[in-house]
């Protein structure tokens, strides 16, 4: 006990908090989505702790054992591939199980792609909603239809190969709104593409990780 939820950089490795590093250096074990992915970051910060995988494909099987470790007095930290665990990744599953088991959960805040994109977007930030990933098949249309009247700025995550299709479908259901594509935030090719959805999708040539920010219904 407890479980620490530690945010890690979303690109630039310097975006790691002092406290995040300190906690990871002190815990008994670190749970991470992909050990190969997290290893360079951990080595760079002199963090040498046992790593154990925790991802969408093993979360159900792994959770009871983790709860047992925590109950036995071990201190664990959960990190994900990038950003704040719990935001569009498997962390929620473990946090819920800890809460149900009465195990303290302590967040160590840091970067999150959606918030970074929002604050640089130039679209209103006083009220916003986070939609994460749209369903890839069933329920996609329904979700977009529900968002038609949403008047807050909307944040979407999307996989690079689906961005163009998603933008076209957002335009179909919500109209040709103002959009900001925040691409490769904190990385070498960081870029903010602003315009109407129709202006961007016409000649879509962008690569890498992206957040889509859409203006709310006026
Ligand atoms: N937990 C993470 C967070 O706090 O931002 C998000 C994890 S989610 C699985 C991955 C998605 O976040 C990507 O598909 C992309 O939409 C967005 N993302 C992550 N890093 C990014 C970056 N450097 N630039 C733009 N978008 C990024």
* Order of secondary-structure elements: EHEHEHEHEHEHEHEEHE
Structural class: alpha/beta
The termini sit apart by: 48 Å
What is Rg?
A: 19 Å
What number is the mean pLDDT?
96
Helical run tally? 8
According to DSSP, the number of beta strands is 10
> Could you give me the name of the CATH homologous superfamily of the largest domain?
Tetrapyrrole methylase, N-terminal domain
Bound molecules: S-adenosylmethionine
Question: What is the helical fraction, as a range of percent?
Answer: 25-40%
Number of domains: 2
Query: Order of strands side by side in the largest beta sheet?
Result: 3-2-4-1-5
Instruction: Give me the CATH architecture of the largest domain, please.
Output: 3-Layer(aba) Sandwich
Summarize the structure in words.
This protein has about 220 residues and is α/β, with parallel strands linked by helices. It folds into two domains: about 5-110, Cobalt-precorrin-4 Transmethylase, domain 1 (3-Layer(aba) Sandwich); about 115-215, Methyltransferase, Cobalt-precorrin-4 Transmethylase, Domain 2 (2-Layer Sandwich), CATH 3.30.950.10. About 35% of the residues lie in helices and about 20% in strands. The protein contains eight helices and ten strands. It has helices at about 20-25, 35-45, 60-70, 90-100, 115-120, 140-145, 165-175, 195-200, and strands at about 5, 30, 50-55, 75-80, 105-110, 130-135, 155-160, 180-185, 190-195, 210-215. The strands form two sheets. The protein has a five-stranded parallel sheet, sandwiched between helices. Strands 6-7-10-8-9 form a five-stranded mixed sheet, with helices on both faces. Strand 6, helix 6 and strand 7 form a beta-alpha-beta unit. It is globular and about 55 Å long. The chain binds S-adenosylmethionine. The site of S-adenosylmethionine has 23 residues, from helix 5, strand 7 and strand 10.
């Amino acid at each position: 006990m407890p479980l620490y939820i530690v945010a890690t950089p979303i690109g630039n490795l310097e975006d790691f908090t002092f406290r995040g590093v300190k906690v990871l250096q002190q815990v008994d074990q670190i749970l991470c989505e992909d050990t190969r992915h997290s290893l360079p970051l951990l080595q760079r910060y002199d963090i040498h702790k046992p790593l154990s995988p925790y991802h969408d494909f093993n979360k159900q099987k792994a959770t009871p054992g983790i709860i047992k470790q925590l109950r036995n007095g071990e201190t664990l930290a959960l990190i994900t591939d990038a950003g704040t665990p719990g935001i569009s990744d498997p962390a929620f599953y473990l946090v819920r199980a800890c809460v149900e088991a009465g195990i303290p959960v302590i967040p160590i805040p840091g970067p999150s792609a959606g918030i970074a994109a929002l604050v640089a977007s130039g679209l209103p930030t006083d009220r916003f909603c986070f939609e994460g990933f749209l369903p890839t098949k069933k329920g996609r249309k329904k979700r977009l239809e529900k968002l038609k009247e949403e008047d807050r700025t909307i944040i979407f995550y999307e996989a690079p190969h689906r961005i163009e299709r998603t933008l076209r479908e957002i335009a179909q259901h919500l109209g040709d709104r103002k959009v900001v594509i925040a691409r490769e935030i904190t990385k070498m090719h960081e870029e903010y593409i602003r315009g109407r959805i129709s202006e961007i999708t016409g000649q879509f040539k962008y690569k890498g990780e992206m957040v889509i920010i859409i203006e709310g219904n006026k």
